[in-house]
Amino acid sequence: MFAGSSATKLDNFLQSLDNPDPKNSFNQRLLEIYMEWHQQLPNNSEAVFKAGAILSDMGEHSQAIPWYRKAIEMDRYFIMAYLRLAASLTELRQYSEAETIFLKATSLSPDLWDNYKEYGEFLLKRGRYQDALPVFKKGTELMPDLIPFWFYYKLCQVHIGDLEGAEATELVIQEIKARQRN
């Protein structure tokens, strides 16, 4: 089908996609591409963001953070850059700063459901169920048919001892599932 080296290159590329190592050659090449893009378009916040995202995906969170900060500096409404910055800070256990960034993203774009998903999960993973409850509630208001918001909301209810509320939330989940099946 493919001639010699072309087949080998294709095989290597396909193997790199399945490589569990986050620092595989595919990610390395993507990083090179975004760095080149940034050099050609130094004022493009998307190129800066993408470089940070690849670094995060490679587990290089401390290297990714300056890229996210630069993307935000270039576009103060780049909400996904705030969310990825907060996630990298969380990975580095800089929880207080991460929470500040989550709150900033939410204040800049209060109707973006991603803010509530990411911030709610952050709170949930810290065992802050009471704090996470209104965050997930807001998520259910923005995306009423998105079951994970309801599931996390119910999980928080169980952890704070609101078993009656959790049962009511489970009924909502079952209603959504029934609607989605039809």
From TrEMBL:
Keywords: Repeat, TPR repeat. It comes from the Eukaryota. PANTHER family: CELLULOSE SYNTHASE OPERON PROTEIN C, TPR REPEAT-CONTAINING PROTEIN MJ0798. TPR repeats lie at residues 45-78, 79-112, 113-146. Pfam families: TPR_8. Signal peptide: none annotated. SUPFAM superfamilies: TPR-like (SSF48452). The keyword Repeat applies. This is TPR repeat-containing protein.
